[in-house]
Design goal:
Blueprint (H helix, E strand, L loop, with lengths): L1 E4 L9 H4 L5 E4 L5 H7 L5 E4 L7 H4 L7 E4 L9 H6 L3 E4 L5 H16 L2 H9 L17 E5 L3 H12 L3 E5 L5 H7 L2 E2 L2 H7 L2 E4 L13 H6 L4 E5 L8 H10 L2 E6 L10 H8 L3 E3 L8 H20 L14 H22 L6 E10 L7 H12 L12 H7 L3 E7 L7 E9 L2 E10 L2 E7 L2 E5 L4 E8 L4 H11 L4 E8 L5 E8 L5 H11 L3 E6 L4
Parallel strand pairs: 1-2, 1-3, 3-4, 4-5, 6-7, 6-9, 7-8, 9-10, 10-11, 11-12, 13-14
Antiparallel strand pairs: 13-15, 15-16, 16-17, 17-18, 19-21, 19-22, 20-21
Helix pairs in contact: 5-7, 11-12, 14-15, 15-16, 17-18
Length: 531
């Protein structure tokens, strides 16, 4: 296999490839774009970091390419869709730098607590001052870790070694996983209210962008310390600046920024703030991390040559074609159900159960299970989850997966049910295909019937006269148009569940108004990915 390396990659990390007689490895750094386009056609794999853009234009010339290996976590410089169209597998190295990122978080935190950077500059200037640099210990402090994944878990363990009281918030981690780290799972509100120090370790997505806002800062302890070695933009940056200026935040350590290099006025003021320690995205910049990511992508290339499963592929599933033909109509259904239930389920799942009823159960349903699991977990973790790595990701999160099949069914020729169990309870959704179109036919123990749409609103409340009118009025006042409605109830004037298909998202203020208007037991806005 001919492999091209286009960016600086640890030489020792590539040893697995250089020592494999089946691999012809060429290192060609800094190729002009025209020359890269001319060269790429001869290679079956390319290894990059962030310096090479693997886009549609490059792939048009990559006539022999089978794999793109990104030696790092992010794949922003790779056009995954364009690669997938050409059947090119994209792999990355999501865990090679986790220890470096955890240690960098601790380095920023300890530097803030002991005022090392300012004391260093003061002494180098020729002064001898001690009192201004009196610090604080980690022992006895309450440290809130938001995101208990690979990096967050390591940070939690290291903070416990300093005899800190560690609490964590992560709705996608099981209670058992938290117990393994010896930390207590709490709500985000508890993190905000109780923590002396807050450190974030989540991916950046629609759910986490600006997650810590001005409202959250107002409810933090006075003099809180905050750390961000995850992704820029998780802390709302203007709100962070205001909190630093007011003294609400005593000190902050940031390694990442919403724009890199930072060029906005807000970012410039943050970086220059005397109460901030800042670094230019160095969390993964250790010799060990660079070697690790090179080793990880090298292993993936060797696994591909050997025909073994790929642990960190981000796009291409590998199933028997005949089985895929039988299951293909249901993969869209189970993926939709997985996407849907992940936004409704209680936090910290312990078990996910996939149940197949009817004719469908005669076949191997593994492709369906892994498709549904991938759709569900993509809301829950910082790495890209796909059909190849979904089970591994679930196992790492401490989530048990169970598959049940039965050829018996009461109402439908085929029925797919997905259940999520946690300490707080369970959530169940069932669906089927009607003339090839996915339909949800049961939620919890309510019979219901609707076609999933991009924007939806799910509510349960006491079925009293006028409730639906109030809901419609409030949505109309908010400029939200209702497309369809499905109502499920078991008895008159009992609990009702209603699902609205709506043309646009519902904001938080409207959700609160709706909840108050009908005394909702449950209310949740859902945004499904377009298929």
């Amino acid at each position: 296999m001919k492999v091209l390396v286009t960016d600086e990659i640890s030489e020792s990390g590539l040893a697995l490839l250089t020592n494999d007689p089946r691999v012809e490895l060429d290192v060609k750094l800094g190729l002009p774009l025209a020359e890269l386009h001319k060269t790429i056609g001869a290679y079956e794999a390319i290894i990059t970091r962030s310096g090479t853009t693997v886009d549609e234009a490059l792939l048009e010339h990559a006539t022999s390419l089978k794999m793109i290996a990104r030696a790092g976590v992010g794949i922003d410089n790779v056009d995954v869709r364009a690669a997938s169209k050409r059947g090119i597998i994209v792999v990355n190295a999501p865990f090679g730098n986790v220890n470096s990122a955890a240690e960098h978080s601790m380095a920023l935190l300890l530097s803030l607590c002991r005022k090392i950077t300012v004391a260093n500059a003061d002494l180098k200037s020729g002064a001898w001052n001690r009192a201004p640099f009196t610090g604080c210990e980690l022992k006895g402090k309450t440290i809130g870790v938001i995101g208990l994944g690979k990096v967050g878990g390591r940070v939690a363990l290291r903070c416990k070694a300093f005899e800190s009281e560690v609490i964590a918030c992560d709705p996608y981690i099981s209670e058992k996983r938290a117990e393994d780290f010896g930390v207590k799972l709490v709500s985000l509100d508890d993190i905000i209210r109780l923590s002396d120090i807050i450190t974030v370790h989540t991916p950046l997505n629609d759910e986490t962008r600006g997650m810590l806002s001005a409202d959250h800062f107002s409810r933090m302890k006075d003099g809180v310390i905050i750390i961000n070695c995850a992704r820029g933009g998780i802390y709302a940056e203007e709100a962070t600046l205001e909190a630093l200026n007011s003294g609400k935040v005593a000190a902050a350590g940031f390694d990442v920024w919403s724009k890199e290099p930072p060029d906005t006025e807000t970012l410039k003021q943050l970086i220059g703030h005397p109460q901030m320690i800042v670094t230019p995205h160095l969390g993964a910049n250790t010799f060990e991390a660079q070697k690790n990511v090179a080793v990880d992508v090298s292993k993936e290339i060797v696994s591909y040559i050997d025909g073994k499963p790929l642990e960190n592929a981000v796009n291409i599933p590998r199933f028997d074609p005949d089985l895929m033909d039988q299951m293909k109509p249901y993969i869209g259904l189970i993926s939709t159900i997985g996407d849907f239930i992940s936004q409704l389920a209680p936090p910290n799942p312990n078990k996910i159960i996939f149940t197949y009823h009817g004719k469908l159960a005669r076949f191997d349903c593994a492709p369906l299970t892994v498709s549904g699991l991938a759709a569900l977990l993509n809301h829950c973790t910082e790495q890209d989850v796909n059909l190849v790595n979904a089970n591994l990701v679930a196992r790492n999160m401490g989530i048990a997966i169970e598959e049940v099949r039965s050829t018996e069914t009461e109402s439908f020729s085929n029925l797919v049910t997905l259940s999520i169990e946690s300490q707080e309870g369970s959530r169940t959704i069932s669906g089927t295909l009607f003339e090839g179109t996915p339909k949800i036919v049961k939620m919890r123990n309510f019979d219901i019937d609707f076609r999933p749409e991009e924007y939806m609103l799910v509510m349960s409340y006491a079925d009293l006269p006028g409730a639906l009118g109030k809901i419609g009025t409030l949505l109309g006042d908010a400029g939200v148009n209702i497309g369809n409605m499905s109502l499920g109830r078991r008895e008159k004037a009992g609990e009702a569940m209603v699902v609205f298909s709506i043309d646009s998202p519902v904001d938080a203020a409207t959700l609160q108004a709706l909840s108050s208007a009908v005394d909702a037991k449950y209310i949740k806005a859902v945004h499904l990915k377009k298929k």
